[in-house]
Structure formats: C-alpha cells, structure tokens
Amino acid sequence: MLTAILAAFAGGIILNFMPCVFPVISLKALGLLRHQGNSASARTEGLGFLLGVIFTMMALAAVLLALRAGGTAVGWGFQLQSPLVIAALALIILGAALNLLGVFEVGLSLQRAGEINAEGRGAFVRSALTGALAIVVATPCSAPFMAGAVGYALVQPPVVALAIFLALALGFAAPFTAISLFPGMAKRLPRPGAWMDILKSGLAFPMFGAFAWLVWVLAQQAGTTALAAMLACAVVVSFTAWLYGIAQRRRYTGHSYKALLAVTVVLFLAAITPLPGVMHTQPAQPESQLANNIIEVKWSPQTVAEMRGHGKAIFVNFTASWCITCQVNDRTSLSTQAVKQAISRTGTVYMVADSTKFNADIDDAMNAFGQGGLPLYVVYPADGSAPKVLPQVLTPSIVVNVLNQASGKKA
C-alpha cells in the first residue's frame, strides 16, 4: 500500500508534464505570475488550486469506485468514454479560451465591488475551478508510476483506494502549491507587467488546441452528426460569450444590460439543450497506422485465447482516441517503418483493443494486468508462455526487441 501511495504521488507530479495537461498548466502559470510579489494572494490561489484538485479527484474516485462496486468494469478516464461528457468539457475549454482573450470576464463583480478581500475570494474560486478542470483534462493521460498505482487501487477496499487517489491528487497539485506557499521559490519568477496581457491572450491558443482535440475525439465516438451539432453549438456559445461580455461592460457604465443578459441566457440554453439528443454513440472506425500488408485484428478475449500458443506472437495495443499518450506512441513508434517490418518479419499478430467507448472486456483485461489506465501494450510470446507488459512510453527499439524475443527470431 505504501509503495502504491508513493507511486501515485510521483505519478501525480509527472502528470503535470504530460501533453494532455499542458493547456491547463498555462492557466496555473498565469495565476502564479499574476500574484508575483503578493505572497498572501499567491497563497490564496495555491490553496484554492489544491482544494479544487483534491475535491475533484476524490469525487471522480468515489464515482469510479461506486460504479465498480455496482458491477461496471470501468477504469481511469472512464468519463471520457461518454460523448456527452466530451461535449461538455469541450465547451468549458472553449469558454476558458474566450475568457483568456478578454471576450468576457469571470468574477468581474467581485473585482469591482471594492471590498478588501474581494480579489482574494475571486482568486480562490478561480484557482479552485482551474484545479477541477485540470484534473478532468488530466484523465486521458497516465503517467509513469501512475498506471500501476491506479490498477492496484481499483482492487483494494474503498478506504485504501481513496488514500491512493488522494496521494495522486497531492502529487499533481504539489508543484504549483509549493511555489504558491513558499515565497522564496516564487522570487525566481518574472515580475508582473504589461507583458502579462499579451501572455494571457497567447495562452488562449493552447486552450483552442485542446478544444479541437476534444471535438476530434467526439467525432470518433459519436459520428459526423454529433460533430456538426458540436460545431454549431460552439459558434452559438462563442456568440453568447461575446454578448455576455458586452452586458458586463454595460453594467458598470450605467447602461441597461438586463435585456442583453436575458438574450445571452436564452441563446446559451438553446445551444446546449439539443446536445444530449444527438450525442448517440456509433461504432468508431480507428484509423489504421500500419502497412497495408499487416492486418489489424480486433481484440477480444476469445480471439486471444484461440490464437495464443500456436507459433505466432501476439501484440495487443490497448488504446483510445481520447488517450493522447496512445496517439503519440502510435505515431512515433508503432507506425514507424522499423516496427512495421518487425511485425511482418516475425509474423506477429497485431491486435487493437479500442476503448474509445466503454468496453467491459477491455477494462477487465486491463485490471487483470494490474493497469488502471491507458495506454497498455501486451505481447504474448509465440510459445504460449507468460505475456509481457511493455512500458507506457514506447520507442521503436523497445517494440522491435520485444517482438524478436517473443517470436524467437533474431533481428
């Protein structure tokens, strides 16, 4: 248990540097720079982020454990298997990007109220929401040390599992919180100034990139009808945000703003109300990354059992369109010419276990290997001996060497 807790804490720290969390990392960095020189405000923002991370992580963990207790085999990132959750998260990311561009402001009433602690309360709430968003966005990633810890947690009693997820949350929040709470560390950061307005606008574009990625994932899960609905909704929501920004400015210049505010509410509700009806799931057709002469076999427990130990090695790629690490490995390792040639030369059977949508068999298989999240790569030797689990971050040489060993052939 102690090993799993330490691994979860280390994995949480490393998770900050994974590509899926980068857009929200920019928000965290901006918050630090905003309060440079004001240790009280920095501490407020740091504590807000910490509590937002812990609360959201524990809420997700509680839902995850409750679903598993009810017989549903789900794992880390389970909520991203729902097209409706993907659509909602995409709109939140879009709103954050528009906010960074200054289209509208969050907490403007607190900033204008003139109270001594108004800015502090606004910073606390904003930072807590940033922490919550960071955890939700982080779930497609599984950092080193983390997958084994989460896999261990999912087969333990609830109290032990929650302790491990708490360690993961503390590790994830640790870098930002430490810099916020200890002014000596923050002194090395650049001083705030007019350049921060430019930085704030520039940081909107990683958020737009995250929005584009989520829209692509939605298209993989729910088809072109949901994609069209999502894009139309994004246009209406953007227009609504622009109108809301105008209403905010009118309120503090003495102009009538209530009618404009009512229009924004109506437009927003009109945009999001149809979404649940069109977010129906359709079979996702994964894009083949291998050579034409290598056939991808759809994974199933029965197929593995039938083909295992009959003179051919089996390589199983547990993946999902929402798993960024999976996509990076596909393009930097599995789709390289060296790996393609190794699969062809060794006669390895290449299987894909696609978890873009919920698949209980896939989650059961991952649990059997003690892995709580994607990616997962398993190689079954040609002689039927025990399977080998590969690292979560692949290189072509790792894959080629394992395939040579599993097939009993030399390079």
TrEMBL record:
Coiled coil: none
Annotated Cytochrome C biogenesis protein transmembrane domain residues: 4-215
SUPFAM superfamilies assigned: Thioredoxin-like
Top-level division of the source organism's lineage: Bacteria
BP terms from Gene Ontology: cell redox homeostasis; cytochrome complex assembly
Entry keyword set: Cytochrome c-type biogenesis, Membrane, Transmembrane, Transmembrane helix
One GO term describing the cellular component: membrane
Location(s) in or outside the cell: Membrane
Listed name of the protein: Thioredoxin family protein
Source organism of this protein record: Enterobacter soli
Pfam (any one): DsbD_TM
Main location: membrane
InterPro entries found in the cross-reference section: Cyt_c_assmbl_TM_dom, Thioredoxin-like_sf
Transmembrane portions of the chain: 6-25, 46-66, 86-108, 129-154, 160-186, 198-219, 225-247, 259-279
Bilayer disposition of the protein: Multi-pass membrane protein
GO MF: protein-disulfide reductase activity
